[in-house]
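Continuing the batch. This is chain 6 of the set; chains 1 through 5 are on the previous pages. Same settings as before, nothing changed between runs. Recording input and output for traceability.
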Amino acid sequence: MPFRIGKRTADEDSDAKEMSFLEHLEEFRWHIVKALLGIVLATIVCSIYADWIVQDMLMKPLRLAGMKAQVLTPYGIVLLYMQAVLICGFIISMPNTLYWLWKFVAPGLMRRERRYVGWIVGFTSLCFFAGVAFAYLLLMPAALQFFAGFGTENIDLNPSMDHYISFVLMLLVGSGLVFELPMISYFLTKMGLLTPQFMRRYRRHSIVVILILAAVVTPSPDFITQGMLAVPMLLLYELSIHVSRVTLRRKEASDSETLQQETPS
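Output for chain 6:
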């Protein structure tokens, strides 16, 4: 049985090719392979600059906080380098990953919608990188300064290197994913699963959810880091309401236009 994603009109997509379900799975598999290939290539590039990434980039916030890291196992330094270059490769290759994801989704869109795939990929990548930059420039220094304030003369605060790198990378990736909230709102609205009225109605409930999510995303238990992440999340929620409203308005206009084209005169 032929399988088709999305709704098309005959005039707009007369050249569309119907694909079976297994053909869609095969196409999806190749898109995943290409996305993973991008991650591998980015990881290889990051491995070339591994010393700069670990020593200059990831360790810089720790040095500014007046702390030093230590390695507790003989193989710990190797594992943390591997973890650092892998996560950095994932972050850098995010535009490529999003591109191949959209290449799979694009055939299910109308022709005029497919023209904006490049813009969507660019804006989604920008949101992700903005979240990573926010975590690196603001969240990490604030959290480390907060922890450094608990040091005493009898107790040196020297975190283990593997735990510190895990803390940093989890914070970077988690913040980047959180900043995708406007794009998630866009897609759910396009799918008819979300409306701006729904988001306004449950605005108070969303505040509780955002506070819980901020506590989950930030690996540190301090309220300062969690609060600093919760504030932009609340702003992103309000932005998502606007995105949902604009998307719904355009979707209704597009559906009305499609209905007029399909209605015989």
